[in-house]
Design brief:
Length: 710
């Protein structure tokens, strides 16, 4: 590897040393976060910024607590894979209700730490007289390797999962031994629905709401490490498209063994995408039908388990899950829900004019001028939202009056801005071509900057951003630094292209590796085809009942449009690379359009969606039993005999998201058809390609494309 790839690998793509996982505590006075000691340190410690003094205090160092790094328990390892967590050390933490204490797991052990306050001018801690700024973390004995510990409101008890059972400390086991998994999120909740937890303390700290997950009907998938044939295979439950899902129930576990099951039509609405206590007398939960066309916000009585419907969101295709913070009850009791503005038509054709919007009690309060992406909470009497106004590549932070719909910019310069809030305190994060900046702004107007110890980004990249074709598809081109106009360049298409992820973004880390590819002699083209988020609902929903046709059509049309605008793009030499859905796009490109694409490197490609998970696949394609022709059309296996271009297939043999069988099935079909190709199977490598694997693959891909596009 060259210097850039080595630096990228050693810094986890320039993220080690950057603060992350922020949480406000103590009514906005404290800002908790995780950060390692520098750009090559992968082990995150737990820190707190005290805005009363501006002091940062490290409360827990994983290497002091565990000098010899241990082995992650299976449950935590899989949860980290679901939430795409690459950092080592302390991966997550949870605060008490007052925000002064935290618990965290470390290699299966449970720790608790309390922050009392940094010294004031008199030398006394600002939290409690006589206390210490940060006490040493104390280990709590547990029943087994710990997953997802949570403190109750007053910090006197901790709930945690061990060996699929829910426990409290002090207290002991609180879930029955009935063969189910308790207190955890099932695969589709964590991977596809945005819910990574499975237990919640009541506000009074006496009762737990817990998920009960039964996976007995699911098929088992297996991994065997061919590099270590002496080790037994690992297996896990996987919900395959068209097959059974995990059965999920919610139970209230009270003192003295009291148990109450929440009652809703779980057969019609099997997915629980959110749940939490609204008060000691009410639980709010969000449930969805299997095709995710109906989403209900329910109010549940924790004493009786009875539920009643508060709001219903429907869509003839699917209710888009990309709007966190809704549905929710406003402080005045009104219901805040996600909505869409009506699409416009021009000449009888549907345009991309519809917007992701917000409604209060069913009345729209935002219009076509913004695309709402997230409701971050409240700030005073107003809603705090993240939204796109000018261009899909950017994001602004706005204050929204929930009654009048009036918008007030809070952070709206060029770039991608995000926010967290608590009791009048704000954490604003801004990212643009010059890097990432974070500012903590207190309720009384003081400002602090959390220390960032990450490696500075090597490149200042200003991609050429353009909207092309009749669908106004967002695109980018990154040229080599110092490129001389008139020099023809081979093209490297580097796109994801699938639902749920935006490639063409003003976030600067997105462009570092594309600049590296460009400096190796390519014009790097990225296309957010229809189906990707943040342009409009109509744009996103264009892949309903079919991925392949729309994805490939937009990629080809955008490439040709860019070729007309930029004559230095040599469209006779076009390579395409990608991972996950991007790997699917790459393999499909050379299989179905060899006239346009001349070589492909396809990593972790879901080659046949009949073998991918239920919640993701069925949301877009429907049930395979009802729409077999859709699944056949989107499968790459029947295309194998048509391969005439160089194809490099890559898969991690420990990938529990896109199982390696996807790649191996396509490789087998190519072999059966007598189609030469290359296959790179990586023992022990997961979907996230940790520990510098992605950079090593880039070096191999570079040699592949240099040879095939020479």
């Amino acid at each position: 590897m060259d210097d850039f790839l080595r630096l990228s690998a050693s810094t986890a793509r320039f993220t080690h040393g950057a603060p992350r996982a922020f949480s406000f505590g103590d009514d906005g006075r404290l800002l908790w976060f995780l950060r390692s000691t520098g750009p090559t340190d992968p082990f995150d410690s737990l820190w707190v910024l005290d805005t009363a003094t501006g002091t940062e205090t490290r409360l827990a160092d994983p290497r002091e607590l565990s000098p010899e790094p241990g082995v992650l328990p299976t449950g935590e390892r899989r949860l980290r894979e679901r939430i795409r967590l690459v950092a080592a050390g302390i991966g997550s933490y949870a605060l008490s209700g007052d925000g002064r204490s935290a618990v965290f797991p470390l290699f299966g052990r449970l720790y608790r730490v309390t922050y009392e306050g940094a010294p004031d001018a008199t030398g006394q801690p600002t939290g409690q007289p006589g206390g210490q700024p940060g006490g040493r973390p104390e280990e709590t004995p547990t029943a087994g390797p710990v997953l997802d510990p949570r403190l109750n409101a007053d910090g006197t008890r901790t709930a945690y999962v061990a060996d699929d059972a829910l426990h409290t400390a002090p207290g002991g086991r609180v879930s029955p031994a009935d063969g189910a998994r308790w207190g955890v999120a099932e695969f589709v909740a964590a991977e596809e629905l945005g819910r990574a937890r499975g237990h919640w303390w009541s506000p009074d700290g006496e009762t737990l709401l817990a998920a009960r997950v039964c996976e007995s009907a699911l098929q088992r998938r297996h991994f065997a490490d061919p590099a270590h044939p002496e080790l037994p295979a690992e297996d896990f439950a996987y919900p395959e498209a068209g097959g059974p899902n995990a059965e999920v129930q919610l139970w209230v576990l009270g003192p003295n063994g009291a148990r109450t099951r929440l009652d809703w039509d779980a057969e019609t609405y099997p997915y629980v995408s959110d749940a939490d206590w609204e008060s000691t007398e009410e639980i709010l939960l969000t449930v969805q039908d299997r095709l995710q066309q109906r989403v209900l916000l329910l109010s549940a009585d924790p004493t009786t388990g009875r539920t009643r419907e508060l709001s219903r969101t429907t869509h003839p295709q699917w209710v888009d899950p990309m709007l966190p913070g809704t549905p929710a009850r406003l402080p005045d009791g009104r219901m805040l829900t996600a909505a869409e503005t009506p699409p416009a038509t021009v000449g009888g054709a549907l345009t991309c004019g519809a917007a992701r919007a917000l409604a209060v009690d069913g009345r729209l309060i935002t219009g076509d001028s913004i695309q709402v992406r997230r409701v971050a909470g409240t700030h005073g009497a107003q809603l705090l939202i993240e939204a796109g106004q000018r261009d899909p590549s950017e994001q602004q932070v706005l204050l929204l009056d929930p009654t009048t719909g009036e918008l007030t910019p809070l952070a709206d310069g060029p770039g991608v801005h995000s926010v967290q809030a608590s009791a009048g305190a704000l954490l604003l994060t801004s990212a643009d071509a010059d890097g990432v900046r974070r500012i903590v702004r207190t309720a009384d107007g003081r400002e602090f900057v959390p220390l960032d110890l990450s490696e500075p980004l090597p490149y200042r990249v200003v991609p050429v951003l353009e909207r092309v074709t009749e669908h106004a598809v967002p695109t980018s081109v990154v040229f080599p630094r110092g490129h001389v106009p008139g020099r023809r360049l081979p093209v490297l298409m580097d796109s994801y292209g699938g639902p749920g992820f935006q490639d063409v973004s003003a976030e600067p880390r997105r462009w570092q590796h594309r600049q590296w590819w460009a400096d190796r002699g390519f014009a790097v083209v990225t296309v957010d085809n229809r189906g990707t988020p943040y342009v409009s609902p109509a744009f996103t929903h264009a892949v309903y009942r079919g991925f392949s046709e729309v994805t490939l059509e937009d990629q080809v049309a955008a490439l040709h449009a860019l070729g007309e605008r930029h004559p230095d793009l040599d469209l006779d030499r076009v390579g395409v690379r990608g991972w996950s859905y991007g790997g699917y796009l790459s393999a499909m490109a050379v299989l179905r359009r060899p006239d346009v694409f001349h070589a492909a490197a396809a990593g972790a490609a879901p080659t046949d969606f009949r073998y991918y998970d239920t919640a993701y696949t069925e949301r877009y394609l429907g049930l395979p039993q009802e729409h077999p022709e859709v699944y056949e059309q989107d499968s790459l296996i029947p295309d194998a005999p048509q391969l005439i271009r160089p194809l490099l297939l890559i898969t991690g043999l420990a990938d529990d998201n896109v199982h390696p069988s996807h790649t191996l099935r396509l490789s087998q079909a190519l072999t059966d058809a007598g189609r030469p190709h290359q296959l790179l199977a990586l023992p022990g490598v997961t979907h996230m390609t940790p520990n510098g694997t992605r950079e090593k693959l880039m070096a191999l891909e570079l040699e592949f494309f240099r040879k095939e596009l020479a």
